[in-house]
Amino acid sequence: MRTRIKVCGIASVDEARLAVEAGVDALGFNCVGQASPRTIADSTVAEITKVTPPAVATFLLTLEQTADAIAAHIRRTGPTTVQILSPIDPAESALLARLEPHLRRVQVIHVESRAVLEMIPVYSPYVHAFLLDSGRPNAATPELGGTGRQHDWTISAEFVEASQLPVFLAGGLSPANVGEAIRQVKPFGVDLSSGVRTEGRLDQRKLTAFVLSVRKADEVRGSA
Questions:
Q1: pTM across the whole model
Q2: Are the beta carbons of 101 and 74 closer than 8 angstroms?
Q3: Total of domains in the chain
Q4: Which residue in 13, 26, 77, 117 could disulfide with 57, CB within 3.0 to 4.6 Å?
C-alpha cells in the first residue's frame, strides 16, 4: 500500500510547487482566523487551488461549524477536499454532505482517549475519511491541530482497525518517526506541517527526507 503524504500550512504558490515537486499527494491550507500563525487568506487559497495539478488533492482547513458556513468557505476557495477541524453536530455533517455531494469531506478527530472510537459511527455516514490529530478541542484554550505533539498511537491503530473509511495520521510526525508511525498505525495517509519547516518556512531538505522515509516504510510494509 502507498501511504499518502499531506503537507499542511501551505502558504504560497511557491510552497505548493515545492511540495508537489517533492512528491506529496495533498496540500493543506490553514484558513482558521487567528488560531494559527500559518493562516492565509481565502483569496490566496483560491489562487493556489487553481494552479495545483489535478492529481494533487487540496485540503481547506476550516473552523466553521455549520454546513452553510462550511459550504460558503468552500465556494470562496475552490478546494477538492474540506478538512473540518471542530467536532461539529452530526446533523450539520449530514447537511454538508447534501450541499456538497461531490466534494471530499474529512472529519478531524483529536485523540485524547479511547472515547474517540465512539466517533466512527457518528460521522462515517457523512464523510469520506478521518484525520487523527493531537489537539484538545475542549481545553480552556481550544487546540485544533498544529501542536507538533505526538498522541497515543495505540489508540490511533485501534481507530484505523475499526474504521471502514480511510484514516490520516497527524501530530508530531517527522522524518525520524514516520516510519514507526506507519508500521504501528497503518494509516491511509500521514499529515504534517512543522516537521518539514525551518523558522516557519517549508524546508526542501526536511520535506525530501520525510518523503523518502515514508516510501521506505511503504517498502517494508509491502514486504511484510
A1: 0.92
A2: no
A3: 1
A4: 26
167-to-22, 81, 170, 207 alpha-carbon distances in Å: 22, 14, 10, 21
pLDDT, one tens digit per residue, over 101-151 is 999 999 999 998 999 999 999 999 999 999 999 766 665 555 666 666 788
Q: What angle do CA 188, 7, 114 make, to 5 degrees?
A: 45
* Domain boundaries, position 120: 4-223
Joined grid coordinates for residue 4:
499518502
Of 192, 142, 202, 153, nearest to 171 (Cα)?
Answer: 192
C-alpha cell at 212: 523518502
What the block records as the C-alpha cell of 128 is 469520506
CA distances from 42 to 32, 35, 60, 84 (A): 10, 15, 9, 16
Contacts of 219 (CB under 8 A, 6+ apart): none
The CATH number of the domain where 79 resides is what?
3.20.20.70
Q: Which helix (H) or strand (E) covers residue 57, if one does?
A: strand 57-62
